[in-house]
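**User:**
If convenient, please work through this fold.
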Amino acid sequence: MSRTPSPSLFAHVQSYFTEYLPRQRGASAHTIRAYRDALTLLFKFVSEQNGRGVASLQLADLDANVVTRFLDHIKAERSNSAATRNCRRAAIRGFFKHLLRNDLTHSQQYIRVLAIPAKKARQQPATYLEAEDVRLIINMPNKRTCDGWRDYTLLLFLYNGGTRVSEAAGLRWDDLQLAAPRQVRLRGKGRNYDDLGDMRSCTPRRLVCPSAMGYA
């Protein structure tokens, strides 16, 4: 009786991104993108190292040595910080844990990758702006122009709402309630929702010109 061949590398990649992360783990779109980007960089690096196309990569190509070289590469050649390197490492570890669960044949190979240590990252001291500094920044846009109103509104919204840039970038028109009581609905990390409550202090009467937002 012939043995059933083990799934290919890209069969594991597909099951990881289409089944495990979104359905079993319930990972957010942000997490899935971060993990996808890390693996894309890894596969491109391994492809260049081996002199073969990405489509020809196999599980045997992804050992601890090449993963370590990749992590050193992104720090030295791409000028990534230790913290960014550790984020890439965490994404790669997530995929190799998936491999270990589903392919015991190469378990020692995967365990050696999982044993790659993190780099110690320097903790930057917390910094902040004084209230007057914030006022100067917020009032820099020229409110006599359409673009100036847009920039002023965005800066005010980010500050008063404690809003992440990614949350502001993900806003849709139906997330804004401009009639009283003025409210904004944010989609935070992990697809969690957060209502900012009464936003009277940071929502100008005239929000922005539609043309400035690219809707006209």
